[in-house]
Specification:
By secondary structure, the chain is an alpha+beta fold. It has seven helices and 16 strands. The protein has helices at about 1-20, 75-85, 180-195, 200-215, 280-290, 300-310, 360-364, and strands at about 25-35, 40-50, 50-55, 60-65, 90-95, 100, 110-130, 135-140, 145-150, 155-160, 220-235, 235-250, 255-265, 315, 320-325, 335-340. A hairpin with a 5-residue loop joins β8 and β9 (about 145-150).
Length: about 375
């Protein structure tokens, strides 16, 4: 009897796993919506990379609109029907069994019964105009905080992520904004809110379009994103690093990342000047840091570093100090030049005791 029960359980489990595996996800722009006599949605057609797929709505299909975070099933359904329109961006989980649907143009497309449908965003056609008069469409909602600019023929030019962090950003083994005093939390939040995007979005779009015209079929869309995360913390200070990634080469989808560092008093939230983090004069920091780098540097690079170093370029991290000399700041180097100093190589008395990251003690 026990053996039979175990066998039955195994069969049921296998059937359940198969059912889960049989579901498939379809995402794309809505190009057609079907309704019944009462105006309720019964099906719609999505297009993705010029392929069209029909999505069939059943009574048990779960819907997730964008404009509501809580409510009754009836409220969700009503909002979903408002948002499901031509040019909406939607995602659907469907049973894998293939059906057929005839579009308004008389074309027969493959179709699937949906278990759930989510509205992700939408496409605004001719949302803006470039300097030469070219209209550009704007697709929002590819992610929770992203938007994509594209030409009317569907060619993607640029994808932009909204700046994110430092709130709700956590790094394993490090403290976060949550560990600051309430006063400091608010100050840090205001600082990064006022900082905003560290890029000119419209200028970046113009450059992407110029590259598209120049490269033709070799063009690959650019991507901009800006994230701020905790980098380290000490007795009186918390360090954050903002990483800004910008398109560099549109033919190879290469990007350049710029790091911007900031330190804050963990009680007051006031931003701390980089010079105040060191226990020695600025001239000594600039002279000695190249000597502390983990590998031997060419003499001409050391000389260039000593004269060019800006203390704002120094980042405090989990394992030590990180410095990026921007392209053009060192006469001997054409590109960004990255160096690091292991925390074990930093002499006592070089950094203020209250500014030394606590995580460094674990590396000693």
């Amino acid at each position: 009897m026990k053996r039979m029960a175990s066998l039955l359980l195994a069969v049921l489990l296998a059937m359940s796993l198969t059912a889960c595996q049989d579901e498939k996800r379809v995402e794309g722009l809505v190009v057609e919506v079907r309704t019944d006599a009462s105006g309720d949605v019964t099906a719609f057609v999505m297009e993705n990379e010029r392929n069209q797929t029909g999505i069939l709505i059943a009574e048990k299909t779960t819907v997730w609109p964008m404009g509501i975070s809580s409510g009754s099933p009836a409220e969700y359904w009503a909002q979903f029907q408002k948002e499901l329109r031509v040019d909406a961006l939607a995602s659907a989980w469907c049973y894998s069994r293939r059906e057929k649907l005839e579009t308004a143009e008389g074309k027969t497309v493959r179709a699937y019964w949906a278990t759930s449908v989510e509205i992700l965003g939408g496409l605004e056609r001719e949302a803006l105009t470039l300097r030469d008069g070219t209209p550009v469409d704007l697709r929002e909602g590819d992610g929770q905080r992203s938007r994509t600019y594209r030409l009317s023929d569907g060619t993607e030019l640029l994808r932009v992520e909204e700046p994110f962090g430092p709130e709700n950003v956590y790094v394993m083994g490090l403290e976060s904004v949550d560990d600051l005093s309430e006063t400091a939390k608010e100050k840090v939040r205001q600082y990064y809110e006022e900082q905003g995007p560290l890029y000119d979005e419209l200028e970046a779009l113009e450059r992407a379009y110029a590259a598209c015209r120049e490269l033709g079929e070799e063009f690959q869309a650019g991507h901009i994103y800006q994230d701020t995360s905790p980098a380290a913390s000490g007795e009186r200070v918390m360090y954050f690093t903002t990483e800004l990634t910008l398109p560099e080469d549109y033919s190879m989808r290469e990007h350049r990342t710029v790091s911007i560092h900031a330190a804050f008093d963990r009680e007051t939230g006031e931003k701390i000047d980089s010079r105040d983090l060191f226990a020695v004069p600025e001239e000594e920091v600039r002279r000695r840091l190249p000597e502390l780098v983990e590998w031997e540097l060419p003499s001409d690079v050391v000389a260039d570093m000593t004269s060019a170093l800006d203390l704002e370029w120094i980042g405090f991290g989990r394992d030590g100090l990180y410095i990026v000399f921007p392209a053009g700041s060192l006469p001997s180097e054409e590109l960004d030049y990255h160096v690091s100093v292991d925390c074990k190589n930093i002499p006592e008395g070089f950094i203020q005791p209250w500014a030394v990251p606590e995580v460094w003690a674990e590396s000693s």
